[in-house]
Amino acid sequence: MKTRILTVMAVAMTATLATAQNPIIRDQFSADPSALVVGDEVYVFPSHDIKAPAEYGRKDWFCMADYHVFSSKNLTDWKDHGVIVDQWTAPWVNEKGYSMWAPDCKEHNGSYYFFWPAGARAMQTADGRRSMGGNRVGVAIAHNPQGPYIPQPTPLEGVGGIDPCIFVDDDGTGYLVMPGITITKMNDDWLSVSTDPADRHRVEEVPTKGLVEGPYLFKHNGKYYMTFPWARNVEEVLAYCMADNIFGPYKFMGVFFEEHENKCWTNHHSIIEFKGQTYLFYHHNDYSPEFDKNRAVCADSIFFEPDGSIRMVKPTLRGIGVTESDTQIQIDRYSEIAQSGDSIAYLDTDNYFAGWKTVFYEPGSWVKYNTVNFAKAPKRVKVKVVTPSAGTLEILQDDKVISKVKISGKSDASEVVADVKGAGTGIHHLKVRMASKGNVQVDWLSFE
Ligand code: FUB
Questions:
Q1: Is the Cα torsion angle 376, 380, 381, 382 positive or negative in sign?
Q2: Dist. CA 29–CA 147, nearest whole Å
Q3: Are 233 and 208 in contact (CB under 8 A)?
């Protein structure tokens, strides 16, 4: 076991970087994102969907063996800090369970407490009884949010089930929220929950059917928001209820995120406030369009109405964060698109992680990509096209044309460079418009 722990720590130290819009994690499947603000950074602790290995019988089901943690300062570049807990080294976990489902992590007394559910091995409990496994909740502790995390030898006593959420109230008291939906005060050690009935509450003001997983409790302007996935029909929407006190009474407020259009069955989320803006982290199966148990973490902004209710969230491809003009701007993650005349397609249907391209085929069609920061006025634009492509693109900063890019289609060159004139500095919205007949397929563009 020692060797495995060392391996995990070594992996945790080799961080990799992903520049992203939605999905924000682009090199692996990821789901059930739990976001945590630590100073001027955001950490995301997702589940890690994988393709089922031979030893795992259920090829049609969720399959997860470990957790990674990711962080970002600008909500655009996400660093993968590697594996923090896995089913082979966590002491009580069934090492063939592949059921490390939705986790959560919060800070307590200067340490980071990572809570995760998993199928347990049959084992001896502290009082000498024999537990027969089932879904249990473990805790691993670290001095830094990126780890290394040391798992506790046994799961939380008296707690069974999946998808733990930890809510920390303004006075620092921690509560364990579990599907059901139950709220239980944690003891000060955060390694056990209170057994006093006065410290436990079941939220009754929620739909009676279709609530099986993923509650997330947060506070905004002094109100408690109990949010949860709800299989209203078949696929999950995100809904919520609100209260003035943690143990209610809650008032059911309805849905704030509709079913995914492509019928991805689950959604699972967390909500944070970072630098004055509230953000929703959730998932969708962007990198696995035919199998919705291999998901990808996305993020969008959340807004509140004056009465405190949550405005309906429409998932975007653009996501959150500012994109620097000299990075590869993935315009296929657009903010807006013309009704017809262009489309988005996978670059490689044998490898969805290669991402997407924008296909322009009608004069006047366009995509808009918001919030690009021009640190200096650009002189040129480089467009990475997928060959063969032929036609002329106009690049606009807000409504002003700053470049015309002619793509001849005659050479194999996939990076076409054109002059830029009259571009300003600062944050601008970008528009790319087809200015001719033809067919131009763009992977990304970048200013220099
Ligand atoms: O990721 C496995 C399960 O699917 C989660 O625990 C649920 O919330 C759902 O997203």
A1: negative
A2: 21
A3: no
